[in-house]
Amino acid sequence: LVAEIEKKVIEAFEVFDREANKTVDIREIGCIVRSLGCFPTEAELQELLAQIEVEEPGGFVHLEQFLPVMTKVLLERRFRPIPEDVILHAFEALDENKCGYITKEDLVKHLTEG
Amino acid sequence: AFKAAVLIQQWYRRHVARLEMRRRCTWRIFQSIEYACEQDQIQLHNFFSYLMDQFTPRSNKERDFISRMFISGESYKEAELEKYCDYESIEVPDSYTGPRLSFPLLPEHATALLEAFQQKQQLHARYILNLLHETRKHLKQLPNISHVSTCYSEEVTVCGDLHGQLDDLFFIFYKNGLPSPSKSYVFNGDFVDRGKQSLEVLVILFTFLLIYPKEVHLNRGNHEDHMVNLRYGFTKEVMQKYKVHGKKILKMFQNVFCWLPLGTLIDQKVLIIHGGISDTTDLDMLEKIQRDKFISVLRMKKRKESSRKPEIQAINGESKSGTDAAGTEAAPRFSLQLQSAQAPSTANRLEFSRWLRQTVQEQIDTCRRLVDISESEPEELTYSSMVSLKDVDEPCWTRQEEWKQILDILWSDPMPQEGCRENKVRGGGCYFGPDVTEKFLEKYSLQFLIRSHECKQEGYEFCHNRKVLTIFSASNYYEIGSNRGAYVKLGPDLIPHFVQYQANKAAHMLTMTQRQDIPESAFRALREKLFAHTSALISAFKAYDEGNTGRITLSNWATAVESVLRLGLPWRMLRPQLVRSTEDGMLEYKSWLDDLAMEQRSQEHIQSSLLEVIYRNRSNLETIFRIIDRDHSGLISFEEFQQTWKLFSSHMNVEVTDDGINDLVRSIDFNKDGNIDFNEFLEAFRLVKQCP
Known about the structure:
The complex is a heterodimer.
Chain A: H1 2-15, E1 23-25, H2 29-35, H3 42-51, E2 60-62, H4 63-75, H5 84-94, H6 104-113
Chain B: H1 2-53, H2 60-70, H3 78-84, H4 107-118, H5 125-141, E1 145-148, E2 156-159, H6 166-176, E3 184-187, H7 198-211, E4 216-218, H8 226-232, H9 234-241, H10 246-257, E5 263-266, E6 270-272, H11 283-288, H12 308-317, H13 349-362, H14 367-371, H15 383-389, H16 399-411, E7 413-414, E8 420-422, E9 430-432, H17 434-443, E10 448-451, E11 460-463, E12 468-471, E13 485-490, E14 496-501, H18 505-508, H19 512-532, H20 534-544, E15 551-553, H21 554-565, H22 571-578, E16 586-588, H23 589-598, H24 608-616, H25 618-628, E17 635-637, H26 638-651, H27 658-666, E18 675-677, H28 678-683
Parallel strand pairs in B: 1-5, 2-3, 3-4, 6-10, 7-9, 10-12
Antiparallel strand pairs in B: 2-13, 5-6, 8-9, 11-12, 13-14, 15-16, 17-18
């Protein structure tokens, strides 16, 4: 099972590996983690990144550092997907006027003033 | 409320990430399939080597048929060319409402052409031929490497691959302005193939070239080559648009492409070439080569007379390659020419090979045909004998070395690793590293290189520490929304400024759901590839299925598929799109493969192994058909069709009976007096998506 998970992580990593040299830009890590099926919050993502050594300068993450951390995340089933009813609830909580949608500005406001 | 917002953000970011992953996977798929197709060239080369070395023709007919495949397109002397591709005798009817050109060309002609093409009008064949003759005359005066200076026009605009995408060219002119005395342009090759308006692109570029010869510069790309055009669509486009005069037009294009300059140098500081460089690239040699001798870079010129013997060995050793002077694997060479007249009895293979070699020797006096020159110059002197002649300063490099120089310039790609190695993916040129670039720039006191040849998502990309710039001007190259196109402007400071675009209004307005359709076509292409390798896949799956249960784990599925297709794709990420139903993480592979097969139209009555061969080799088959179809009519006789099949299937080790072939032929309507329209035939074998 571990081998299979590792293969998945490597595959996802390599899609973002522009120069085929086993490194990706640190800004893409979030994308990679999420496309592997995880739903971390921004805070959780930052914590995760802190665990991974980053190559300076340039802010590149090497596959060797990323693999063990990510594998653990998947094995422990961290950052599970949010159930649909919960997310719906969240939308309804913010949609004061009950119009069925919220605007980007609203979201930003709540995130920054929360 | 904050919590709620965070939740939504979480969800949203995951959604965006998924889309991004999808997009990159799609890109990967298109790219790897494109490069795999270029690998087909190598396969084709193997096929021809097989024919020469191993195949024993069983009849005179077969032998004649094979030798016809090797005879190159006829080459013409200057006078012959003017006579054959004459345009003056072509009458333009009064009913023709398109633009009429007169020479010398004026800016009004260019505007008229632009308008006409926007209205989807077609330029009369007479004018095309006339234009080509004039273009050729002009190009002949140009050196191999054009020199441009930014002190005449303040800015130079450099464009990359256009690949017949007229809309992109229109957009560039609209946004950047038409070429003029104050607006210089360099177009860096690959004007044709793949896109459907290669002709129009060329007509416009050549027109501007003639009107503003000081300001407009064209470089040759690897697609300005008739062997490549046979495979990638330009030949087809010309024949479809010009049924009567198409052949003449194609012949003229051949003789114009070979005169295109190889590169452009700006202010002696920036070199612009289509592909790249290699560690042996020599600008001095490049400037002195007779570039028109290389009508197609995909064919090696044969040396003659005293160098006969190594030549023969080279022919034989070709399938193993690595025998040429430069020590690199050469691009496919199959330009051996034969005279079908007196062949011996073809009783055994040795006889046949010997006959081949003999015939080659006998052809020395008609070596002009062998070498495919368009002029009747005394090319007969080999370089070794030239040295003894006069100017001892005269460079004595070989034709082979010259050919490699051009091949490298037109076909190479940069790579992140240091060094220089053969470009096995494309079958020509090499991969060059940052150290090669550095050395080259230093040697010739250059600041950086501009090249094209590779599609880039943003239309341009720097590499090698910003010393190599790739510029690609065909937007939406793989599919709508796949990539932007770009052009770059350089002023006297030689600092690049980029303009990006996506010349398809629809692309801007794609809704979310419509954007999902883009990956769909990539997956369709993938499914087709999978289908084409059904037998190999089954064997691979069986290897993982020890209990013969008919099922394998998804993990093994991924490994097996990669081992067969070798596309380097992230199969585990792609699995959800390719495999619909699984049970407990196991896949029933037989039924999965059957589902893939179901997607094609009713071809069930055709032997399945035969079908596979067709799908797998469709582009090679198409190229072979086009080579056989020398008058470019799109038709080959039933017999030729049959013979092609027999030869090809014996090479591919597939059993094919006469009945099998007849079934094949019957599957398409052909009522053209025993002739087969191979376009129709090939179209019939495209996978069609099943309607939901």
